[in-house]
Design a protein that fits this description.
heterodimer; A: 203 residues; eleven-stranded mixed β-sheet; two-stranded antiparallel sheet; 13 strands; B: 180 residues; 8 helices
């Protein structure tokens, strides 16, 4: 006849040992895992130290401040680089005279920038002259193009010859002779300069 | 307690013998807990294996706030619970059961131990998991009811109830089957 007391005794004395083979297998695997952890210990300690440092509140604030500062500086320089210096090389055309508001948008950018006499120009640049504004683009051989108000002009190429696309507005080209090929394209057609001075407009 | 602290200290210093001694010290009691909870010696072996391998991997960075024995017991219980949730417990028939007696036992006493253990573990498998857990943790792992209440996330009085109901059921199941 069993009783709860006897059952308690039986269970507390219950022993279900495994075989020697099973014990050896478990111990071998545990020792292998222990040995393996030794090689990882150095790495863990390094990361542990780093994590301890980073848990500090002051470190967190300092790290956040540094990251923000780096972000701001990078953002400023990348933005500036992106705006003023596209991947292409600048061309030898200078905005020699500017009246009013002239905007430029570099190729690949969606940002319009105010054009100044110090601005560098690049192939693919789009120029927009606001109302009552005009600009003179001077070439190194004293040739120039004057773009009048409410115009939209794109510099298509500048490699042995010059090609502009006048989308809208009016311009005057004055070219020194002899001059390399000089072409103005418009939505209505294409004009290649033959004389020294000409005016073209697109309504 | 002091011996356990010494073993942990050895482990942290890279002494493999610490792990060996620790395994020898706790393997049987932990395996018994797992096997009596799962009623499956093969899965109990797997549980013991996973617990010790995981313990060995992390032993250098170990920070234990409780006794090592209780810590290892908790590791076993957690894995037993995972296993229990993963599959419906499959009662094993005597033919499929793995040997549960020590290799060194005398053949005759081993047979008796086998039979007694089998009857007892069969009876434990027949009572609800919560009651079985309370009984095994209290009687085999030596945990207090308060500690078990914390593990099962219930009140101490509920644990008392589960323990009492479990023992009564075992008493009914084992009536006349075991001679002490």
């Amino acid at each position: 006849m069993n009783s709860p007391k006897n059952i308690e005794k039986l269970i507390s004395e219950l022993n279900l040992p495994g075989t020697k083979v099973a014990d050896q297998r478990i111990l071998d695997n545990a020792l292998a895992a222990y040995d393996k952890s030794e090689t990882m210990d150095t790495t863990y300690n390094k990361s542990s130290i780093w994590s301890t440092i980073m848990k500090n509140k002051i470190t967190k604030f300092a790290a956040a401040a540094v990251l923000m500062l780096v972000g701001l500086v990078l953002g400023f320089y990348i933005g500036k680089e992106h705006i003023s210096a596209p991947l292409a090389e600048s061309v030898a055309i200078n905005p020699s005279s500017i009246d009013g508001t002239i905007l430029v948008k570099h190729h690949g950018s969606n940002t319009w920038q105010q054009l100044t006499q110090q601005s560098r120009l690049y192939i693919g640049d789009t120029f927009h002259s606001a109302s009552k504004s005009q600009i003179r683009l001077a070439f190194k051989d004293n040739s120039f193009v004057e773009v009048y108000q409410n115009s939209m002009l794109v510099l298509k190429s500048y490699n042995g010859g010059t090609q502009f696309y006048l989308e809208q507005g009016r311009l005057k080209a004055s070219l020194e002779s002899p001059h390399p090929p000089f072409v103005i394209s418009t939505p209505n057609g294409r004009v290649e300069a033959l004389g020294t001075e000409f005016t073209i407009s697109v309504e | 307690m002091f011996e356990d602290k010494l073993l942990i200290w050895k482990l942290k210093r890279g002494d493999r013998d610490g792990l060996r001694l620790l395994y020898e010290k706790y393997k049987d009691s932990l395996r018994t807990i797992a096997a009596s909870m799962l009623h499956d010696t093969a899965t109990a072996e797997d549980v013991l294996h996973d617990v010790f391998v995981s313990f060995a991997q992390n032993s250098r960075q170990l920070h234990i706030n409780i006794s090592l024995k209780n810590y290892l017991t908790m590791c076993v219980i957690n894995r037993v619970r995972d296993e229990f949730r993963r599959r419906h417990p499959q009662p094993i028939t005597p033919d499929l059961a793995d040997p549960v007696a020590p290799d060194s036992a005398h053949p005759e006493s081993r047979l008796m131990a086998d039979e007694k253990s089998r009857v007892l573990t069969d009876a434990l498998a027949a009572i609800p998991f919560d009651q079985r857990e309370v009984i095994v943790l209290h009687l085999k792992a030596g945990l207090k009811f308060k500690e078990i209440a914390h593990i099962q996330q219930t009140s101490v009085s509920t644990i008392h109830g589960r323990y009492r109901y479990g023992l009564n059921k075992l008493n009914t199941i084992l009536d006349g089957k075991l001679e002490t």
